Structures are given as structure tokens and as C-alpha cells.
Amino acid sequence: MQWSAPGYTEIRQLGRGGSGRVVLAVHDATGIRVAIKYLSEEWRHDAAALARFQSEARLLVTLRDPNIATMWEYIQDAFGACIVMELVNGVSLRALLRENGPAGPEAALAVLKGSLLGLAKAHDLELVHRDYKPENVLVRDDGVSKLVDFGIAVRDGTAARPEGTPPYMAPELWAGRPATPATDVYAATVVFFECLTGQRPYRSTEPSVLGYQHVHAPVPLHEAPSPVRELVRRGLAKDPAERPGSALAFVGELERAARAAYGEDWEERGRRRLSGLVALLALLLPEGPPPPTPETSTSLARTVFQDLRSTVRRVGRSKAATGAGADAPAAAGPDGWTVDGSPVRRAAGPNVRRVAMGGALATAAAVTAVIVLVSSRPAPEQPIGAAAAVPPSGQLSAPPETPSDAGDQPAGSPQAAVPPETGPPGFPESTGADPAGLPRPSGLDDGRGGPVGRAAGERGRRDQQRRDEKA
């Protein structure tokens, strides 16, 4: 029997790795959905691994940023340990690249900007992520990206053994030098290059050759689109001193290059592109695909026909009350409906059929316009979701301080708040740790007062007048 965090009800498992599992759960007291990251039994009984897990939780308590998945609380007792995280309703960048290939320049820039902003928050606290890769970037259904998994993060300048995922490790890590914020900038640029081209800049499957390429091989700038080549060159510089001074400084360079090449609204288009790619993988979302948009409008044909029937009935009742019906001609339709003695059913039948056909087309066009508007809505300025709410328990909690230094502990933390995924084929996992919107057509209405409804009503009255004159 697996241990479960008290106060939470598990819904289903999102992923499992050698060092733990991640589940979708609900906080019993508030009903808020969360992701819970459990440390495996094997690692929980390893003092060094448990200390690393606690260290990650302590780091996450300090990282409150829209571009980083929020930690709610840490729970540990005699039977287990876990980190309760914000549930990010999205898919990993790795899944997007695997299923769709290159994301395009604007989408790649949007991902890079979000990641750099999240890394900048960590760097402000003198933390280095050290394991930035597509598996650790989640893209929400609105196109906003979030950074996860600080399992092997260390203090800036910490002298620790090299750790990370080889295809994304900076030259200084291969050389055994300490990690700095420039190390994260390098890894983020590798992922940026992969979003642009569908491939990493260095692709050897032999670790020793791969390390040599990162340290000595020239950057394949010709494979990247020309407007962003300077960003790639700066971010992948072999010498950390030649890279941007900080993640935030790199954001400034990125925004200037993006505006010059793709216009002021590049980020909105990039997020819309990412949102569309996520929609193609809706079945992978933790909370499942969004529900279909309910029909909120009445069929035009049904509205006009019902209005006609009600008018006939009102006239019939009025004639019966005043006695005028005795002077009316005896002609009547199949159901006995008459208006001033005219057979409404026979006269209105062809017209109603024409209105019905036009109404069906108008309704289809209106529904299509609504769907396009909903799918192309701009992303919010500030990410929304669980991170904007109060923690399920009402307060943040972290594990007690331990004298262990996370930078000196062996690796082995699981993915944070997301299912662990298989990395690029042929490579080991981390060495230290497990379209534009369209306006709604103004001529479509609910069948009563819009241009379509008025035109249908006028045609009906003219047809009726002509028939009365012939009679």
C-alpha cells in the first residue's frame, strides 16, 4: 500500500521515475487540484537523497514567480515524504517538439523569454538551476510556459561535481568548473536552438564526443533563422564571460531582436502558436481537454417559426373574443390557422422553408465565428491558475533545516510537478538526478433584431401581401 499525503485525495498518476512518482490530487478542504511529487521508498531511506529532496523543497518556498511552478507545502512523516505543487494544466516542451517538430521563431522566442524570466528569479536568489531542458519546461493551454524541477539546483559558484543532462550542459560544467547563471543561459539557448530547428546544436550520442563538441566545436549558426542568429551566438558562447551577464539582460536582448524582426505583437502570436500546439495534445493535459463550448444562441429558423405560430394564435384569440371571426372567409389551413381569413400554413410554408435554410447557414457561421474568437483570445498579461490562489492549506510549509548542503549530496530527485519523460533518443537522463483572431460577423444575430432576421421578416411580409392581392 503506497503512502498518500494526508488531506489529499489522489485522482490518477501523472508519471513515475526511478526516484519517485507524480500524481494528480485534490485538496480535501478546498477542492483545489494539485500535483504531488512523492519520493520513492528506496530514496526516502537514503539519508543523502532525502536531504536533497528537502533542500529542493526549501528552495521552492523562496521561488514565487509566474514563470515557475509554485510549491504549496512539504509533507513528511514516518511513512513518506512529498512536495505539493501547483498543477500546471499543460504539456512539456519535449512533448510539443516530439509531436510537432520546430515550433517557429515567434513561439521559440516566447518559450525562451518565459524561461529566462523564471531563471532570473532564481538567479536573483543566487540559485543556478543546472538542469534546464525541454522536459523541465511546461507549456500551458494558453501558451504561457513554466519552469519546473529544481532538484539539482545549487548556490551560484558552488564547487560541486558536474551534474545535468549532457546535451544541455555548458562547456564549464564539462570542464569541472562551478555553475553560474551563465550556465543556465547556455542551456536555455540550446533549447531555443532546438525549438527553432528541431535539433540540438551538438548531436553526438557518445558522451566524450558530445563534451568535446560543447567545449570546442563551432556553433552551427547557419541552421538558425538569420534574425535570431546573434541571440544564438551570444547564448552559446564557449566562454561564460562572453554570454549575457544575466538571464534578465538576455531578455532585454531577446525583446529588441524580436521586435526588430517580427513586430511589436510577436509575443502574442508566439503564445497563440504554442496554445494551438498544446490543443493538438489535449488528451495529455492533466485536467483533460477543455469542455466543448455550450450553444448559447437560439436557432434563427426555430425563432422565426415560433414567432409566426404565436402571432397566429394571438390573432385567432383576438377574433374569437371580438366576434370578428364570423365575417372572415371560411378558408383555413390544414390546422385551421387563419389570419384575416388567409390560409397561413399554405401561404407561409415555402417562405418558412426558405427562412429555415437561411437560418441554418447563419447559425453555422455564428458558431464558427465564436469558436475562432475563443481559440484566438490573447494570453493574459499575468499567468493565472492555481498559482494565483492561496495555498491549499492556507500557508506555505517547508521541511526543517538540515546541515546537509544540497550541492554536496548525490543526485536522485524526481521530476517536479510533471510526469517524468524520456529525453532525446540516444542520451541518458540527468547525470545527477533522475492563428490570428477574426472579428465576429456583425450581420449574424439571434434571429430577432439583426440584419438577417429583419430581412427575412420583410420578405415574408412582401410575399404575403402579393398573395393577398392575387386572392
UniProtKB/TrEMBL annotation:
GO molecular function: ATP binding; protein serine/threonine kinase activity
Binding site for ATP: 37
Comp. bias intervals (Basic and acidic residues): 456-471
Entry keyword set: ATP-binding, Kinase, Nucleotide-binding, Serine/threonine-protein kinase, Transferase
One Pfam family of this chain: Pkinase
Residue ranges annotated for the Protein kinase domain, each copy included: 8-262
Gene3D superfamilies: Transferase(Phosphotransferase) domain 1
Biased composition (Low complexity): 320-336
Database matches in InterPro entries: Kinase-like_dom_sf, Prot_kinase_dom, Protein_kinase_ATP_BS, Ser/Thr_kinase_AS
Listed CDD domains: STKc_PknB_like
Region (Disordered) residue spans: 315-344, 382-471
SUPFAM superfamilies registered for this protein in UniProt: Protein kinase-like (PK-like) (SSF56112)
Protein's name in the database: Serine/threonine protein kinase
Lineage of origin: Bacteria, Bacillati, Actinomycetota, Actinomycetes, Streptosporangiales
